[in-house]
Amino acid sequence: MAGSYRMCMCFTRKFKVTKAGPPHDVNEAFFKYTDGGTHMSAEQLRRFLVEVQGDGGVSTADAEKIVDQVLQKMHHIAKFTRRTLTLDDFHHYLFSADLNPPIGDQVRQDMTKPLSHYFIYTGHNSYLTGNQLSSDCSDVPIIKALKRGVRVIELDIWPNSTKDNVDVLHGRTLTAPVELIRCLKSIKEYAFSSSPYPVIITLEDHLTPDLQVKVAQVMITETFGGMLYCPECECLEEFPSPEELKYRIIISTKPPKEYLKAEGGKDKGNKSRKDKDSDDDTWGKEPLDLVSDQEDGDVSDTDTSEDSDGESQQPGVSAYKRLIAIHAGKPKGGLKEALKVDPNKVRRLSLSEQALEKASENHGTDVIRFTQKNVLRVYPKGTRFNSSNYKPLIGWTHGAQMVAFNMQGYGRYLWLMNGMFRSNGGCGFVKKPDFLMKEGPHGEVFNPKTKFPVKKSLKVKVYMGDGWHLDFKQTHFDSYSPPDFYTRVGIAGVPGDAIMKKTKIKEDNWTPVWDEEFIFLLTVPELALLRIEVHEYDMSEKDDFAGQTCLPVSELRSGIRAVPLFDRKGEKLNSSRLLMRFEFLQD
């Protein structure tokens, strides 16, 4: 493929997109395993996969299947005349993101532990199509999130304008509402389109008691029917496991008692901001939090532990309450009190990102001890009007299961979130590292502030890249010449592991070859994410973005792998990819 670039008004420069040959390591591996021959048999490929790629369970039949797939793709009818690979075929196989991906696509973790043992892919204000103040509310972003593997959907429910039905909207903003029933029906249809594991609906409830009854008896129960998980006892001593809850819908919100006490004597549909944030000082909210976060665990000073006789007489309370499998709310008192573990029941607590930062500074081990049995949900501060996000690693290093993100946004933090949940086959549940769940003989737990020794090293080699000329217009990166690509590669994780490095710039080349190697020292590899970004160098302006991905280090497949790239919003680019090599070195 040739391209012309205009140089001033008089003439043009012509460039040809040249196909880069296999890197030295690929050539070397091919000739080693073919004993210097020109064709690689299935058995020789199997030996390469076992010895170089670390794929110990590969059989000759598996290798034959790969050979057939490559030949069919490369030569169409050639699979009927030979069943061996040339060097170009071998290189094509290694550089195919479909055939040779960097991580697996199967659930590989133990899914029989209680829910509190897992990080869960969690959305915040899941119904918003854009910013937090004026965008439309819709079921479309909910569907997109479920298709991506998100397992926790948040719905803010309010009385509609005539007070006879229920809408979903971001309260006290200009967001246009969507009917609750439409959201629920879409959740039912798409809940298990990408994962069989449970979907948790967190309700931020601003309803009057009669509408609560309507939601419980008419909307939720009739929509989900037998899919709905309703525990036999009101207060669970331990959460069920994701395996037990396959294909189930779980409701999480405050029990109605919280609503009744907080709303007593007030307008049921719109309690005052002052009342809502009466415990701001205790919970670390900022004065600039002008828009209501409407988060259940952060809004009430009511103890949720016992029921009163008066409450049981309220119409519809029992029907509504029976639906709640994961009780939200917090006890009276400050943060220290809220983090106390009740041996007789489990619950969900919500903290804003600022409150978590404060808690991690002063009560870090209490947070971890709480999350060993209970569920902690972290949500973005209310001033993130543009639906931006925050550092997820603070929550994960403290065991927070639900680090809630604005999935309709984009940016590096969302890339990290997407990277974490590529783990475990992308099922939306990632088992927390054992060290976050262990308790020592004297009750001691993991302390994120501790400086740990290096546990292992990761060697990363960036060979080359290709595919941009198929995904982008010829002049997308530069009007006057082919792009000048470079790759940034690094680690996101605990502070001691976080680092970014970059390759040299390869000028005027759509298929850059870097062949550069980096070593990363990891103290907590279990929480480390490999960050990869490709940029196009621009001398006069900000460098152009050319793709990104983020991969869980614990799931990386060793050997030479094809790494697909994604755009800023997390959508996979059709052709752009890198050829890389991963190797773990024990320290």
TrEMBL record:
GO cellular component: plasma membrane
Compositional bias segments (type: Basic and acidic residues): 259-288
Domain PI-PLC Y-box: 350-436
Enzyme class: hydrolase
Annotated spans, Disordered: 259-317
Lipid metabolism as UniProt keyword: yes
GO biological process: lipid catabolic process; phosphatidylinositol-mediated signaling; release of sequestered calcium ion into cytosol; response to stress
Compositionally biased residues, Acidic residues: 292-310
GO molecular function, one term: phosphatidylinositol-4,5-bisphosphate phospholipase C activity
Pfam families, A to Z: C2, EF-hand_like, PI-PLC-X, PI-PLC-Y
Record membrane topology: Peripheral membrane protein
EC number: 3.1.4.11
Keywords annotated in UniProt: Cell membrane, Hydrolase, Lipid degradation, Lipid metabolism, Membrane, Transducer
Catalytic activity: a 1,2-diacyl-sn-glycero-3-phospho-(1D-myo-inositol-4,5-bisphosphate) + H2O = 1D-myo-inositol 1,4,5-trisphosphate + a 1,2-diacyl-sn-glycerol + H(+)
Keyword Cell membrane: yes
Protein name: phosphoinositide phospholipase C
Species of the source: Populus tomentosa
